[in-house]
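Researcher: Next entry: ANTAR domain-containing protein (Paenibacillus baimaensis).
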Amino acid sequence: MKSLLVFFSDSCQPAAHMIDCLNAIGMDVISVYEAEDLTVKTYEPDGIILCCTEQRLNVWLDVLARQFELPVWWWCQSSGFMTGPAHHIEGILTSSMSPPELQWALVVGLNNYENRRSVQRQIEQLQEKLDERKLIERAKGILVKTTGMSEDEAFKYLRNKAMKERKKMAAISSTIVDLYGPLMER
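Model: Predicted structure:
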């Protein structure tokens, strides 16, 4: 991670110490003060630090979640916590952190973000495989009912047809379900 976009919301004043600490650990800092500037896609940061009050935290997290798919840290300026964030944040940063503490907070947060994204991708892949398997099972059921073949024969038929047409079994199954599914439901 080399560059961070630091967004200062309405009531939050930029702390020179914060920018100095980020620069001290080798970060390129892009400072943004207006919400309209967030829509400019000329920025290609590796992460975002959100500097705002706790009352506005969830509002700004929602805005950032719609604009970016990046790790977000909250630069906390309040002493207490009243509610939890509505979106994932990678960590909370404070003005009292030294450059090494800040660097470790960013590294750990980035690792957590990458792990969470990896798990999300795995979940999506597993969901896709499950949906494909459901299609194959429905197509097998249709073939068993309409042709009288066994489940094994129906599976072999789908597999052979997929290999012959150089398609996935799910694509062949989808065609069968689309054609015969509505007729079978009557």
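Model: Note for the record: The chain has two domains: 3-97, 122-184.
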